[in-house]
Amino acid sequence: MTRLYFPLFVFVLSLLGITAMAQTPIDSLLPVRGFCIAAPQPKQLDTFIKFINEELAPRQVNTLILRVDFNYQFDSHPELRDSLALSKREVKRLVKACQKNNIRLIPQINLLGHQSWASKTTNLLRVYPEFDETPHVKMPEKYVWPNADGLYCKSYCPLHPGVHAVVFELMDEICDVFQADAFHAGMDEVFYIGDDKCPRCSGRDKADLFAGEVNSIRNHLAQKNRKLWIWGDRLIDGKTTGIGMWEGSFNNTYRAIDLIAKDVMICDWHYERPDQTAVYFATKGLSVITCPWRKPGFAVTQTQDMVKFRKSVTPVMKDRFQGMMQTVWSGAGPFLDEYYGVSVNPESGENTATNCFKSMFGEIKKLSESN
User: Fold this and answer.
1) CATH 3.20.20.80 describes domain 3-369
2) Tens digits of per-residue pLDDT, 90-120?
3) Which one of 141, 216, 231, 261 is separated from 339 by 20 to 30 angstroms, measured CA to CA?
């Protein structure tokens, strides 16, 4: 494994305020060694920074995605803040820890889909209900799936004339405070799009709507030389592949794969099988990262596959297979409690995010040492 550093170059760029990308080491085995988790709450900050310094850095993690959403004290839209949210000073501590450890820090705000969860509408649609793609679908007192409305998570309407003014200001502010050269927009599990009752979207092609939103976000970020990252599930044909409606699309958004900009980074998640759809994204001209969650055996297989893909393709294709990223779908607090043995669920057995994280990076280390 080769890791190249340019300390003088990095120093000069840091004086210009360009830090995140410049400090990320180049890894010839896996360019991206990532970790994705919800941003910590203020009370968890010290423990999380300890985790960055003592667990991520020694494993040579070079990319950290923090799902921030509204866990930040936004100045542009204070009405959207969570009640307990990170301050600018607290975010700077995270930025400093990542810079010290050569970790590229990328913030995420869920866009388009995931504007509700269970029986709760999240901040954007709660404050701006006019952005709702399906206002006729009422949030239930007790959520169950499946349900008559097909409600999983609410979406905002991508064609509402006011939505991007708000969303883009949030993106700009969060990227500025995190000193980020990339932004993760989520965009996974979008079940509500192009609804028949939406006065703007009704009758429109769902693939065109999805691609239009991806490209609008991408183009806005590009104005400040920032890159867009998204989850890849809506770009997979869930019916034809048999992958299903969660890790693939049943509402025809998958055709957007041929309509989106080729510099969008795809985070390809598969949690129940180690499906090799990274090859599909790469052959479509998109860069891709494979993302496990809680099954250690699958994470090892997926890591081996990613290294094998990079070794067995043309140089042009090799650059599209970008690496691996462990994902965590609890809050930072529960994960840290599990990791440090504060609170462990014995019923989980081996299938935990902690064990998956250790197994994936253990396999990366083994493969690095053998290459």
Assistant:
1) yes
2) 999 999 999 999 999 999 999 999 999 999 9
3) 231
